Amino acid sequence: MRKANLPIVIGSFFIVVILIPTMISLFYTPYDPETMQITARLQSPSSTHWLGTDQYGRDMLSRIMTGGQTSLLIGFASVGAGMVIGVVLGALAGFYGHRIDEVLMRSAEVFYAFPSILLALLAVAIFGPGENTVMAAIAIANIPVFMKITRASFLQQSKFEYVQAARAVGASDLRIMFRHILPNCARLILVQATASFAGALLSEASLSYLGVGVQPPKPSWGRMLKEAQAFGSLAPWTVVFPGIAIALIVLGLNLVADGLKTKGK
Amino acid sequence: MKYVMHKMVGLVVTLFLISALTFFSVNILPGDPALLILGTEGDPARLESLRAELGLNQPVVVRFVNWLGGLLQGNLGKSIRYSVDIAGLIGDALPVSLSLAVLAVGLALLISIPLGISCAVKQGSVLETLSLILTQLGMALPAFWLGLLLIDLFAVKLNWLPPAGYTSTASLVLPAFALAIPRAAVLTRVVRSSMIDALSQDYIRTAHGKGLARRAVLYKHALKNAAINIFAAAGVHLTQLLGGTLVIEQVFGLPGLGQLLINAALQRDLPLVQGLVLVSAALILIVNFGLDLLLLALDPRLRFD
Amino acid sequence: MRLEKTLLTVLLFLVIFGGSVPALADNDILNIAVPTDPDSFDPTRSVAAATAEIAFNIYEGLVKSTPDGQITGALASHWEIDSTQTVYTFYLREAYFHNGKRVTADDVVNALNRARDPQISQRASSYQAIAQVYAEGDDRVVIELSEPYAPLIYELTELAAAIYPRDAAGLDQRPIGTGPYQLQEWRPNQYIKLTRFEQHWSGKTPYFREVYFRIIPDYNSAVASLRTGSIDLIPRLEAAFLHLVEPVPHLKVHADPMNVVQLLAVNNSHPALRDLRVRQAIAMAVNRDEIVIGAAWGQAEKIYTGLSPAMPEFYNFELAEVLPYNPEKAKELLKEAGYSDLHLTMTLPSAYPLHVQTGEIIADQLRRVGIDVTIEIVEWGTWLEQVYTQRRYDLSIVGLTGKLDPHTILNRYVSTNSRNFTNFNSPEFDQLIIAGVSSTAEERKAIYDQAQAILTEQVAGVFIMDPLQLNVMNAAIKGWQSYPVYVVDVAALYK
Fold this sequence. Notes:
The complex is a heterotrimer of chains A (265), B (305) and C (495). Chain A has helices at residues 2-24, 60-96, 98-113, 116-127, 131-157, 161-168, 173-208, 221-227, 237-264. By secondary structure, chain A is mainly alpha-helical. Chain A starts with a helix and ends with a helix. Chain B is mainly α. Chain B has a domain at 96-267: MetI-like fold. The radius of gyration of chain B is 24 Å and the shape is globular. Chain C has 495 residues and is α+β, with helices and mostly antiparallel strands. Chain C folds into 3 domains: 2-35 and 180-250 and 475-492, 3-Layer(aba) Sandwich (D-Maltodextrin-Binding Protein, domain 2); 59-161, Dipeptide-binding Protein, Domain 1 (Dipeptide-binding Protein, domain 1, Alpha-Beta Complex); 260-468, Dipeptide-binding Protein, Domain 3 (Dipeptide-binding Protein, domain 3). Helix content of chain C is 28%, strand content 23%. Chain C has 14 helices and 18 strands. Chain C has helices at residues 2-17, 49-55, 105-115, 152-155, 219-228, 242-245, 276-285, 288-294, 327-337, 353-368, 380-389, 406-410, 427-437, 441-457, and strands at 29-34, 63-65, 71-73, 76-81, 87-92, 130-135, 140-145, 181-187, 191-196, 210-215, 233-237, 251-257, 260-266, 300-302, 343-349, 372-378, 395-401, 461-474. Chains B and C meet through helix 2, helix 5, helix 7, helix 11 and helix 12 of B and helix 1, helix 5, helix 11 and strand 17 of C.
């Protein structure tokens, strides 16, 4: 039992390490995260700037703290929405098969083959620029991914004896799908969710260049990483710290997801 | 046979839907190719005649029907951005993207299958913890940074491989690794999870009980069972890569579908966008179809009828 | 482990049979890295600087620019201008096209007539002053103007006025010119291959037999290729990447002015920005020193008006102190104008990182004087429609490509000009621009000095800097020539 809990403990620790500074940034940051001081640009970590400064002389620590607000919101909201919709649709397709599977998977394929750059340009043309647009775009792009994974698992699971058994005792379809089968697919879905979460944080940065996402001077981790592309080798702290922030939260989420599953068994 | 026919009809319907969706989407974007051709240095007085020349003053529906007509005669049309036949452009870019995608997913599988199995068999070991952490890092590293690190190490420092550009197949090795590493990270976890699930199934326990050799159990039964999930996940990655891999193509200067698509979309080169979406959609659908067949072969119980 | 063996076999197969392309690195082959493909090699269609840079080696006009911005004969050995300044007679030299045919007066007349035809040419307005073009015999071409137009001779150096055979078709992809290099092959997203032309009228043969312009969009990997030797030259490296080059001993940098005017475009029709005091306040809130460091990494020259100092004979050097950086004064002006809480949107083109970065810094500077600025980054197509064409914007940043003659650059701020996207409106300025085209060289200097002063005082925009063009190359490459226009003179290079 103790061993099974270890991943949860470590994972929660990582999540807390990221969440606490992000929460604090709601009412306090060491410096203003948006005000520039060009003369203090690209300073290495020191006692005045713990994580150094960026290309405009802004305090990296303050920007990473504040950037957590946007990045985490985008990650959770877009992947959460994409996952819920994708899992439900994928479950329906995999469980019922035939016509429903045909129609659902066909529409999934249409969305899947539709290039994400067009999706982003379209989103901004229709909904205008902003953070909600980027969340919608990432969520839509994630739906077919979760659909496919869930469908494959459901196809497989629905042939197992326990499903027949549940059916025999008169359980409703919905109950079988979400109480019996889903828990058995949860591990794979969560693996995909944490991968998508990391992907969402990173692609938000590319999308903000199309006017879809977080606009400067507001910080986000993905954008910080992307902007540092030119001078990362000159000032490694501009890359390393936002990178660690993303890695920690993804690692934490993964460990917790893993631990929950092991505990449930 | 009936199954294949049915699938083919479905494929055509899906392709039509995708084409229509793309066509009308691009049309509602701000900016048009004529405006983009003129830029800030061209003569605005030329705008209208240029639009007429490009056929942009016809109604959208007419243009879509014309495009479809051309397509039925096997003609994808001419690119506005590059003023050459689209078939040729795609023909050049397709092999690059295709080999890159297959190479990357292949490498990812090569890394992740043994690693994932070891993790599943030795749960809680140092190896598992270590690979867990490494795979997390692999996921969280943006593709362009991974690409740049590989270029710096293998091209600039060791001088083993070309840094950028497409001059020989060796040019594909580094980008394939850059694409494979984060995917291997995800796939390792898929393999591990599926194997743990498969190993805990009753029939595996039964097989153990029957005294079958441990290795045989592992590979014959469990892996076969896990294969469905592994191939489903690998299929997702393969199809994601088939439409081109913009970031990696840009970092490594590869002339793949991703570069063509971004240029076409940003220049509102509608015929080229249409051609690219059509081809990559067809590829995705074919891969998915193949995957379905593979899954059926792996587990005949999956057949509906 | 059968599965893995199969995979390994597939991979090996791919590696071996995946296709191959000829190897690089020969002594008389030059490899140049550029970030994008040209737009079109048809002189009537091309407007992109990325094309002019390459096409300079392929096409020639009647005249061409020298590295110091003077005009010299190209296909014309010399020319005469009559006393009315409206009749130009060009004397053609014996020259051959890449297809082996001799250049005739007929070819010249055809090319120039197409260049000024608004139904064909993207740059027709530059040649509006031409009334007619005709041949006199086989080796003389006469251009008659409807009124004197001093910029004409400069406009004739542009790619739009290049000479090609009368019967040429498909120039988009297959240019036929008279330059020292001819196009061999263009593979989009891969390379443009030029080979040297043995029959150039100058009788000189360039050093490099083959020249590849290779498309490498990412500057990190372009520099890596330069370090490993698979690339010899990167024209116009972004300044942010210079730190990758400086520590490498076998690389060198030629930094030249780019002759680009980067400006903060201020929409003069915006309800608040119509007030001159508000525009002046914005101009005084902009600290160019910070921008040159923060966005251009010190690799730029500050400018204060609509021309670049890369044109020293016309640039007005007296304007630095007209509206100097003074945030206190800026706040006062805003208060005086009654805009104490002004909110503006700055629309930035994502295709140009330098402009985006400049915009971020200016937004911060404007906030310090109490103007609240929201940044909106859009891609180029959207920018062209919303900002440039429809003029639906408050503030924006863009770079305008320099030309050899000031008229071509300043003309766009004339109130009725269709490219006047800042909606600048000064009758006095309009008068000066009209006067400028029909004046003598000495008069023009004074006229354009005054015109530039108006642009600055009345804030058509806030003119920020001319970024340096950083040409980075292998130290073995010699003969680099810098021009006040955007070109790579390949024929001058040698090893």
